[in-house]
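Try this one yourself first.
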């Protein structure tokens, strides 16, 4: 007992023991950062494939400014410089501009999406009139790309490459006398349909 008659307290077993360090909270999960080095992905150099001309090189050099555009430019450069066989040539032509759908259609759809504030929050900072103007222009581009019947020209390369002598011939519009691809549903100039002609029964 202590001199004052009280019972000394038992020593605490945790004295001198350091508290366990707290585990820091995990940082919030973020989307991975996409890195891309322009011009890094290129096909093997083939002496049989000539280099790109200055006009194409200049266009590819200008096409950039974001990771996605840099990747797109590299993909197009790869297609242009890759050594293709006949089958791959036909496939690339159709997928780029002749099939349904094709890359041109895809780009037109993305243009319309980027021009609509409903799918691109950045445009919501603009006034209503500005939003409507951008949406109208980009949607018109997508519509005109389809109406121009551009894919009809490239789709006809497939039977030519395959040597199909029975491929249908071009048709002449009854209204404006313009020549159109066999797969065109309407005239590329006046937009009349061949079945609407006066001599069609």
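Now uncover the answer:
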């Amino acid at each position: 007992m202590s001199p004052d008659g009280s019972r000394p307290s038992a020593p605490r077993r945790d004295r001198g023991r350091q508290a366990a360090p707290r585990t820091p909270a995990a940082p919030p999960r973020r989307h991975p950062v996409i890195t891309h080095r322009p011009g890094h992905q290129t096909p093997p150099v083939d002496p049989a494939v000539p280099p790109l001309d200055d006009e194409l090189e200049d266009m590819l050099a200008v096409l950039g400014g974001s990771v996605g555009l840099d990747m797109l430019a590299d993909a197009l450069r790869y297609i242009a410089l890759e050594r293709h066989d006949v089958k791959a040539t036909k496939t690339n032509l159709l997928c780029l501009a002749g099939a349904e759908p094709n890359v041109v259609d895809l780009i037109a759809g993305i243009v319309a999406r980027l021009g609509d504030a409903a799918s691109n929050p950045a445009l919501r900072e603009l006034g209503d009139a500005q939003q409507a103007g951008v949406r109208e222009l980009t949607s018109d581009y997508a519509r005109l790309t389809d109406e121009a019947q551009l894919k009809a020209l490239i789709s006809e390369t497939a039977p030519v490459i395959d040597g199909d002598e029975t491929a249908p011939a071009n048709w002449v519009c009854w209204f404006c006398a313009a020549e159109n691809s066999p797969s065109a549903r309407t005239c590329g100039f006046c937009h009349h349909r061949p079945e609407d002609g006066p001599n069609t029964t």
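Discussion: The two ends are 124 Å apart (CA to CA). The first strand starts at residue 171 and ends at 172.
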